[in-house]
Design goal:
Blueprint: H1 2-12, H2 29-39, H3 56-59, H4 65-87
Length: 94
């Protein structure tokens, strides 16, 4: 669901993307960068592309749990709202 939301938001912003950019390990980085470069317009290639990476395996120890719960609540509400609008469901299938 989160991946679908991500792709949906990118499409609305006219950013071509087949999936989210979340990778399980570093082996997929080169392919993601290649695809990103292929999707850029010629005019955009004149300026540098800024990228960031985060290591989620160490991130958990640095997260404020109150803030995390608040953001998860917002995310879950958005997923429910999106599913309701898209499929007219009043529930989320897990």
């Amino acid at each position: 669901m989160v991946n679908d939301l991500w792709v949906s938001k990118l499409k609305k912003a006219n950013v071509p993307c087949g999936s989210s950019w979340i990778l399980n390990d570093s082996t997929g980085v080169v392919e993601v960068i290649k695809q990103l470069n292929l999707s850029r317009l010629e005019v955009d290639k004149a300026s540098p592309l800024l990228l960031q990476s985060f290591d989620f395996s160490t991130l958990y120890a640095k997260i404020d749990l109150i803030d995390l719960k608040a953001h998860l609540k917002v995310l879950i509400n958005r997923v429910f709202h999106w599913m309701l609008k898209l499929h007219h469901f009043n529930f989320l299938l897990v």
